[in-house]
Automatic annotation (TrEMBL):
Superkingdom of source: Eukaryota
CDD domains for the chain: SURF1 (cd06662)
GO cellular component: mitochondrial inner membrane
Origin species: Magnusiomyces paraingens
UniProt family annotation: Belongs to the SURF1 family.
Localization terms from the record: Membrane; Mitochondrion inner membrane
Job of this protein: Probably involved in the biogenesis of the COX complex.
The UniProt record lists the keyword Cell division: no
Keyword entries, A-Z: Membrane, Mitochondrion, Mitochondrion inner membrane, Transmembrane, Transmembrane helix
Pfam family, one: SURF1
Entry protein name: SURF1-like protein
Residue intervals passing through the bilayer: 50-69, 278-297
Single GO BP term: mitochondrial respiratory chain complex IV assembly
Length: 319
């Protein structure tokens, strides 16, 4: 018989034989953190940077579109002024020309009359350039105006590649004094990728380098573009007894190309005006990115609301 210490009572046998039981007790400890997601782009540095870029894009593109509107007005006015100058009668040239004034915007596309003798032995060529799917070159020839007058650099026009040899195109070589109607043009501006001029003994250029051509031939650094004049080749044809004239004594543009006569400019303004396309591009980009930004903001708000809903549901499930 087992004796118990004084003060202790013997438990009933039924209680000792009852198995030990655990009871689950609900607590008020709630996890208020959002449900973890494997990809949280909105909280990453990259997503924040992209969101900031998306905020800037509508503003920047709208500003560029507005700037192109101003450029369109400027180019339209420039073309209108050039077309007005084309309607004016040709100017006679002085013996010596101020190159800065002649190459300014004020005289761009101004018609002038020049008299002198072509130095065909100093011809220069710029190209290759394509015309009617044919490879060819622009011909530039110095024009000597006589004693006391400066030599001018005339861009006579385009010839096919097979006529680079002067002996193959006698119709293009007028002899003696001639009078030519030309357009005063601004010299092309050199850019970062402008090819270097050729060696001094080479007449072939990849770029219309007026300054280098003028230094090589002793001409003034002013660009004159010869206007298309079928009568000048006709006079040369008569000198060379070439019986390829039309009824009016002139030759057509097709005949000029066939016999290697430089095809001059037609007296039309050839200034590119693509600013309207740029306006549509930039304003369209501004509208598109604005809609993207609004959609992204709505999506972020919806995601935030769903996160709150998940928190509440999670809290309810553990209470």
């Amino acid at each position: 018989m087992i004796r118990l210490p004084i003060g202790c009572r013997r438990a009933p046998l039924g209680v000792l034989r009852r198995p030990f039981q655990f009871r689950t007790v609900k607590t008020s400890n709630v996890d208020w953190k959002p449900v973890k997601q494997k990809a949280q782009d909105t909280s990453s540095w990259f997503s924040k940077s992209m969101f900031g870029l998306l905020v800037l894009m509508p503003i920047v593109s709208f500003g560029l579109g507005t700037w192109q509107v101003k450029r369109l007005r400027w180019k339209t006015d420039l073309i209108s002024q050039a077309e007005d100058r084309l309607t004016l009668p040709p100017l006679p040239l002085p013996g010596n020309i101020n190159a800065d004034i002649a190459s300014s915007d004020e005289f761009d596309y101004r018609r002038v009359l020049v008299q002198g003798t072509f130095r065909h032995d100093q011809e220069m060529y710029v190209g290759p350039r394509m015309r009617d799917e044919q490879e060819g070159y622009f011909v530039l020839t110095p024009l000597e105006r006589g004693e006391g007058k400066s030599t001018l650099l005339i861009k006579r026009g385009w010839i096919a590649k097979r006529f680079l040899d002067r002996s193959t195109r006698p119709m293009s070589l007028p002899e003696g004094p001639v009078e030519v109607e030309c357009l005063l043009r601004k010299s092309p501006e050199k850019g970062m990728f402008t090819p270097a001029p050729p060696p001094p003994d080479s007449p072939h250029y990849a770029y219309l380098d007026v300054e280098d051509m003028a230094n090589k031939t002793g001409a003034q650094p002013i660009l004159f573009e010869e206007l298309l004049d079928p009568s000048l080749p006709a006079r040369a044809a008569i000198q060379h007894d070439v019986q390829q004239l039309n009824a009016d004594g002139n030759i057509s543009v097709e005949q000029m190309a066939r016999y290697g006569v430089p095809i001059g400019v037609t007296g039309k303004v050839e200034l590119r005006n693509t600013h309207f396309q740029y306006i549509l591009t930039w304003y369209g980009l501004s509208v598109f990115t604005t809609f993207m930004l609004i959609s992204l903001i709505k999506q972020k708000r919806a995601t935030s609301a769903n996160a709150v809903t998940r928190k509440v549901q999670h809290a309810r499930s553990v209470l």
